[in-house]
Design a protein that fits this description.
With 183 residues, this protein is of the alpha+beta class. 24% of the residues lie in helices and 37% in strands.
């Protein structure tokens, strides 16, 4: 049995939940999200709580049971509090400039790189830090990964775009000079 799937989700006062067919819609002060639910999982709303159950037990059904409970819980959290992820630029001359929904990066390449933020995502740039926020947890994570891939941290000096608080393990450089390669 899924321990996560058994847990009920308490709907906060400012949040509205509605089931239409196999789709659940969550509406709150920060926005609106919806999620389709596959057949072995059943959803019901009663007494201000969302409950998930299985129509028939199977290995894939049990995994979907916990998955959909987690996805809907993240939706409720997103429409009430929102989701944030932070990135930082590490490197001499690495800069980012925001103009509307567009981020322009100067990362040591010959040309500047422009990144268009998708709808529903906001970015705040302060010095060399970028704060990505939005209602949809999956979309916030996906955007931060795409931005990080523009210039991933390299292992020798640690330069690049990294998550705030991420530790980059550095490799040792060439050791031939220190050992006296000419001897």
């Amino acid at each position: 049995m899924s321990r996560i799937g058994k847990q009920e989700i308490i709907i906060p006062e400012q949040v509205e939940a509605q089931i239409t067919g196999r789709t659940i819609k969550i509406k709150g002060p920060k926005g609106e999200l919806e999620q389709k639910i596959k057949p072995p999982v059943e959803v019901e709303i009663c007494d201000g709580k969302i409950r998930f159950s299985l129509k028939r037990e199977s290995k894939s059904g049990k995994s979907l049971w916990g998955l959909y409970r987690s996805l809907v819980f993240n939706m409720v959290q997103g429409v009430t509090k929102g989701w944030n992820k932070g990135l930082e630029l590490v490197g001499v001359g690495y800069r980012v400039v925001q103009s509307g929904q567009k981020l322009t990066f100067s990362l040591g390449y010959a040309n500047q790189i422009e990144f268009e933020l998708p709808e529903g995502i906001e970015a705040r740039v302060k010095e060399s830090k970028i704060d990505i926020s939005g209602v949809d947890k999956q979309l916030v994570g996906e955007v931060t990964v795409k931005i990080r891939k523009i210039r991933s941290p390299e292992p020798y000096k640690g330069k690049g775009i990294r998550y705030i608080g991420e530790v980059v393990r550095k490799k040792a450089g060439k050791a031939a000079k220190a050992m006296g390669a000419g001897a």
